[in-house]
Amino acid sequence: MCKSHSSKEYDIYLQSYFQDNMDEDSRKPHRLRHSGPKADKKKAKNKHEQELTPQQRNPKAFAFHSVNKVAKSVKRTLDIHTKKTHIPEVDRTPVEPPPVVVAVVGPPKVGKTTLLSCLIKNFTKQKLTSVQGPVTIVSGKKRRLTFLECNNDVNSMIDVAKVADLVLLLIDASFGFEMETFEFLNICQVHGFPKIMGVLTHLDMFRNTKKLRKTKKRLKHRFWTEIYQGAKLFYLSGMVNGEYQKTEVHNLGRFISVMKFRPLHWRTTHPYLLADRMEDLTDPELIRQNAKCDRTVCLYGYVRGTHFKSNCNVHLPGAGDFSVKDISFLPDPCPLPERENRRSLNESERLIYAPMSGVGGIVYDKDAVYIDLGGSHSHTQQAVEEDAPINELVATMKNPMKTLEDKMATSELTLFKNAAPLTEADIHRMNLSGQQEEKTVADAVNGRDRRKAVFGENTDDEEDKDDDDDDEEDEDSDDEVGGDDEDTDGDEEQDETEEDFSKPGALKTEMFTRSAKKRKMDGEGENLAFADSDDDLEENFQLFTPVAEKKNTPRKQSNINSSSSSRGRGGGQHMDVEINYKADSETDSEMESTEIDDGVVEKKRKKRTKVSEQEQVTHRKGSREEKYGGLNDRIDEKQDSSDNECGEHVGNGAEDGSEEDEDDVEYQEKEDYDAREDNLNEESGLLRWKENIAEKASQSFLKNKQTNWRKIVYGHESEDYDGESEEEGEVGGLFKISKKKKDQRKGIDGFDCSRDATGQNQEWNIQELLESIQDCFVTGKWDKSEDAKALLDQDDDLYGAFEDLETGEVMEDHQQEDEEEEEDAEDGGGGEDKDVEKPKMKRDMTKEERKQKALDKRAEKKRKLKAMFDAEYDASGGGGEESFYDEWRSEMEQQAQLNRAEFENLDEDLRVQYEGFRPGLYVRVQLDNMPCEFIDHFDPTYPVILGALLSAEDTIGYVNLRVKKHRWHKKILKTKDPLIISLGWRRFQTIPLYSIQDHNMRQRLLKYTPEHMHCTASIWGPITPQGTGFLAVQTVAGTPDFRIAATGVVLELDKSVTVVKKLKLTGTPYKIYKKTAFIKGMFNSELEVSKFEGASIRAVSGIRGQIKKPVRTPEGAFRATFEDKLLLSDIVFVRTWYRVEVPKFYNPLTTLLFPLQQRSQWEGMKTLGQLKREKGIKAEANPDSSYKSIERKGRSFHPLVIPKHLQRDLPFKDKPKVATRQKDPVQAQRVAVVREPKERKVAELMKMLKTLHEHKMKQRRSQMRERAQQHEKDKRKIEMKRTEKQKVVKKQIYRVLGQIEKKKKRHEKE
Amino acid sequence: LTSMASNMRSFEGSNFFRQRLILATLSGKAVKIKKIRSKDDDPGIRDFEASFIRLLDKLTNGSRIEVNETGTSMFYQPGLLPGGSIEHDCSLQRAIGYYLEALVCLAPFSKTPIHAVLRGITNDQIDPSVDQIKLSTFPILKKFLGTDEGLELKIIKRGAAPEGGGEVIFKCPTRQKLRPVQFTDPGKVKRIRGVAWATRVSPAVTNRMVDSVRSVLNQCLADIYIYTDHQKGSQSGKSPGFGLTLVAETTNGAFLTAELASNVKGSEAGPTVPEDLGKDAAKHLLKEIHRGGCVDSSSQSLAVLLMCLGQQDVSKILTGPLTPYTIQFLRHIKDFFGVTFKIETKSNKGTDDNEEDLNTGGDKLVLTCVGVGYTNLSKVIL
């Protein structure tokens, strides 16, 4: 207010003001202290507290006053509530998620690289000289980030938008928004809209703070309209020494590292990889021979999205479709720190991994790859694991999974290129057991060398798989495969080790436990394979062989085991450097292991601390053996896999050896134990032989019972699980193989039927069968948790005494006593002494105490019940109304938990098999047949993405899209003009047909896209799930205009198109009856017409009709009826729809394969307009359409003729005054003669006389003519008569003359 | 070629013909089958397979099917499934069940709901009858679809084995996605139902069958009701025959079925005695209960397929021992979809030693898998 006043005036004003308020000041009221010591004192004095709520004190104030108001407010709250609810989805985020992809995007010269390096420096305290490709860092205890800079090519902008979780959108504030910014935002919108954070740079260019503030505000609001109100916009105020200010970058980093993300649909359904490392594995020799040969390429990266299946096809945006040759997971190069209760990361945990920038040990140059060897010490290790970068190496060394000895046992050496790798065990075998060698040879003769070949050919993965199989078996056969020692042992051993870990007294470092665990797993796996087949054999063997022989068998076994194990596990990962040493150690261990009777198993058991437990276990095992022993031979027969597995049994001799050392102390104990075990085995074996005969029949029905299903299903393909295989076991030897082959052949052409024929022909006694399943019926026994009686008892437990209201009888709480006992038992802790003490304690308790206790217990029960009810009530949102949504949500929650828990404890290899490679794993993907340009023109600044394709997504078909031209794109789009589309993972050029749906669901072709409306586009392109968004650009080359031409969504996929185009056929009538007309010229043949019979036709004049029937001639003419009579000049047409073919043009953009300069300049198929413009072709004008000057003839009109009777009636003034013009000009000049009446009369009379005369003359003339005619007639008659007379006369004369002549002649003759 | 990456699967032999074509259709991968009965006296595909191919042709749009001259090898490039109404005369070599089993696998993934009319043999001794499919497969399908609204199998005419003359109408709704299913507790059998059918034989036959079934099954359960279905006139097909389909329903909604049909007229085995058939069918049902699980042996393969085609969530199902057909199905699923099932044996013996064992038949298997996230690509969304 003071601004307008001068300073003097202002002073005066103030003075007057103070004077006015002077007297008020003196009456200033007392202000109570609300805080501070004084207030506290007062509060302490006045202890009264209001116990009533305002509602209770003043209920009227809170009552409804207006129903409408309340209804409105209730509606509003409900509305808000409903808006918040989303369709629940299963949360599939993994426990250890992959790094968050943070993309730095912006137009050129905006400060992307600077920001990126600042951020990296902020997180890792390292400064990267040049950032190329993705940089992965650990930003916190639970989060890793992958930074990615997006260059200014539309291609990479599109690709980056598909993988980025968070986008830092850089905006040059001094310039404002640029096209690229909006283009990128639109790209993001289409591909799922990741989180976007704007960053304003170049704010130091503003000198004027006010202008700065205004610009900020303006930009912020524009940004908000584009994303959402309140979207985060960050300001980087200025540069210090070429870097952004530290605090600001730090704040930005904080924002990034706490940001939460919404799952995006496409990404949660498609696994993908952002490759952060690339290697060319092609044989250099091949490249030397042909520089353009196809390459084998390895791409590395974190799996993102969802589980990556090993056999899926992938699309590399910018390169094309490939099928994954091989995929395997590697140790995480940039792992999260171990769980510790520290708040921040220490220096060593701030890892950075960016191989493309040269941080991970590898530098990509234009024509070479440099590997950072990390000093002279690391050199040897580098040689061993060449393809692993230093960080990985360090990581693996930091937490080794196996002990050194272990590794050595598994390592191997390849002497010749194609030979099977040699392991220490092999050497050992060569040295020690010639007998063993013979066996393998014999095997080879039998045709079992296949096994060995498999191992030789197998890659590490397959071997891993084998191992997994074994592990899995272990899990499967937990208790039920009781028949074999090793198996159960393995399990128990596992339990026991777990116990060990849980015990605080177990003096093991974490590292050790890890390695032990791993070793244990291996061991188990091996054991299991063993158990599966060979052991069964063994067992059977034991049944029939004398005890003395039995002693030998385990030793042999362990021999086999050790040799095969090392062979099996080799894998080529480890290089054997010190074979000799290892061989030595191996022999040692071997010796030791052979000494022990049941080596493998017993040694593990020895770890146990409690002997009693051990005994218990063996007892149980023994009994189980008794029970099921008889089955073993059957299983064995059935599994034809047994012979295959023979070579596979992977024992663990080596481990035995190592363990032996540890457990030397307990050696004695163990031996004792072994002896006992042996006895037990003998006894049980004998018992089994006799006892189980009775059970056999019943067990035979369950012949599948103890089979290893995993092996049957996913084992070797050749193993056909058939009834026939039973017989095989009995024959054995050579016959087996031939028979199997026969089976196989039969198998491939077997009878295709879903019904299980194997169980049908089994004979089975109904009574026994009924007995075995009696508890399958509701009438049978129930499980304790389900049994009604047990549950009722439990209820009694819970609710205690009650009064029967009908009888008035009070039921005593009879359970109480028992409960007390139970409780005592819990308190008592000790086993047997507790029983002794109990009665005594009871007596000691006074009656009151007991009563008090009972009361307490009841109160406790009540409290629990109430808590349960509360929990339920809260969960359902206070009433039943929301229960549907809540139920749904909890269902999803449960599913998510199950998803996480199901495979959590499995071995990693096995888990990968079941789930695929889960997100967060670091994997190496090998691709074959990559074009050489991918390597030649590789540029790390372009993102390499491996997007997996789900089933059927790698096929091509017709795709219907809902499309809308982008409102900022300047031109409308023309049908059949090529368009570059980004859909799913792909970018491709295709030719769309635009159409719109008519009311009768017809897809009518459009020539151009509507200006502001959606239409349908049909393209020939990759099949992509419905609902996937896409965007289209006309060119990727940089243009000043907005490049995004259209956006939309996939509607429908099909293998045929239904787009139609209007086609009018015209004809003309050539004969017209009343309402029927014959029309020609519309069709060419009778057949054509008959196809259109009944079609409605229309004349140009609007008369509608129908085609009736073809006529013979002219060809193609037909009869038609109309609603009115046609004119001959009418044109008749029929409206038809002609199906339009979508051009089968699909051209994926292979930008990654181009040289760098060409990438952003790529131009595919050109539009027709472009081509014409370039070639200077003008469209040929239709001569009909060209303008012609119109010549109009002057028209001559007929004179107006007024009919006479009309003229007569007209009044004079309206009568035509114009005299009739005379034809003869001479006459016209004559003067009209007007006669006197007398003259007129005379003239009249004269005229009459004349007429009479004329008439008389006329008559006379006609009479005269008649007379003349009569006369003529008479004359003719007379004439005729005369001539007739003359004829007769002449005749006579001639006759006479003739006679005379004759006479003459006769005379002469005479 | 419509496929961009190398995608073809090749197989040998005629066995598991349907599985391969079904999975190829669902996964969109081409299939080449070679050496179909190449060593056989009568080489090449048989009539019923040819009929199956024709059915597939009707079901799909844009597929390419090539069979060589001798019929010993075929190539199949699948298209999409338009659905709609289909009529098919099935070959008389196999029952309608042979075709229906495949149709059930494909139907939920078509563009519009399928309305199929199939003609041929409704009941025979080889394939699951239409009754069995209705009683055993439909409950499973319902689990995965969510509801059984629009799911229908109507037997218009019944046709026994050699001559056929039966007609059924099959309707199935479509789904965009399937639900993951966890079904590992079948509960206990609470009732037994069944259908005793007879065509062109005395109506008394059905009653005789029912009596003999009751004589066996009454020992374990009282709640038994077997419907008699004696068809007459044009609805009874062209051949005489009779049979029995039994289903045991459990408290948790699992259905275990078993069935038997009489010998074909004029077969070497001679005529079947209804009482024997009833008894045998009852025995089969008991065996099926002995196998147990939440899915009976005839629908195992469908359950496995639908589990695999679910969302990327864990599905779990308890089954009895796997049938050879299912085993091969699992292998093929691995081949086509890359899904490996976790197969655990669940012993029927009590876990604790102190608890007494329940006699609940043989060991059960828990099949667990993560779905591939399959979506129905044919269905239109607007």
Structure description:
The complex is a heterodimer of chains A (about 1300) and B (about 375). Chain A has about 1300 residues and is α+β, with helices and mostly antiparallel strands. In chain A, α5 (about 110-125) packs across α9 (about 245-260), α15 runs antiparallel to α23 (about 550-570) and α24 (about 580-595) packs across α29 (about 655-660). The radius of gyration of chain A is 54 Å and the shape is elongated. Residues about 1-5, about 375-400, about 430-695, about 695-705, about 715-745 and about 815-840 of chain A have low confidence and may be disordered. Chain B is of the alpha/beta class and about 375 residues long. Helix content of chain B is about 30%, strand content about 25%. Chain B has a four-stranded mixed beta sheet, covered by helices on one side. In chain B, strands 5-6-8-7 form a four-stranded mixed beta sheet, with helices on one face. A four-stranded mixed beta sheet of chain B has the order 9-14-16-15, covered by helices on one side. The longest helix of chain B has 18 residues, at about 275-290. Chain B is globular and about 55 Å long. The interface between A and B is large, with 100 and 104 residues. Chain A: This is Ribosome biogenesis protein BMS1 homolog isoform X1.
